[in-house]
């Protein structure tokens, strides 16, 4: 679980570094047994969204959590499955349409920036 939390925060950081908008990490551990965390981000172009998704692949592979599946690389919603963590990268209209934040409204939000800072201090 701690590894999944760390991975979700690392993916969120990647999205933030690529100027992803409204980067959000949802903790789903008490809601579903299928996965532990969602990372949700919005990009303004297909190129930006591909950069967030592909760099997340690189970071997760470096942490022994390679991507297990992907959907939507040519569409407005890219979904990458890393096992316990699922990355959702949207174009603005798609994020508004699918509204995952509302669909999973019971899920606590993770302060991923604080989590990464805490992990960095404990090194």
Provide structural commentary.
The protein has 123 residues and is α+β, with helices and mostly antiparallel strands. It has a single domain (2-121), classed as Beta Polymerase, domain 2 (2-Layer Sandwich), CATH 3.30.460.10. Helices cover 44% and strands 24% of the residues. The protein contains five helices and six strands. The chain has helices spanning 2-17, 46-62, 92-98, 100-103, 112-121, and strands at 21-27, 37-42, 69-71, 77-81, 85-90, 109-110. A six-stranded mixed sheet has the order 3-4-5-2-1-6. Helix 1 packs antiparallel against helix 2. The radius of gyration is 13 Å and the shape is globular. It starts with a helix and ends with a helix. The mean pLDDT is 95.
Number of strands: 6
Strand order of the largest sheet: 3-4-5-2-1-6
Sketch the major β-sheet.
6 strands, mixed
| CATH fold type | Beta Polymerase, domain 2
Cα-atom radius of gyration: 13 Å
Structural class comes to alpha+beta
Low-confidence stretches: none
Whole-number count of domains = 1
Could you state the CATH homologous superfamily?
Beta Polymerase, domain 2
Order of helices and strands: HEEHEEEHHEH
Q: In angstroms, what separates the terminal alpha carbons?
A: 19 Å
If you average the pLDDT, what whole number results?
A: 95
Q: How big a fraction of the residues is strand?
A: 15-25%
Task: Summarize the amount of helix as a percent range.
Answer: 40-55%
Shape field: globular
- Please, how many helices? 5
Q: What CATH architecture do you see?
A: 2-Layer Sandwich
Question: Which CATH top level class fits?
Answer: Alpha Beta
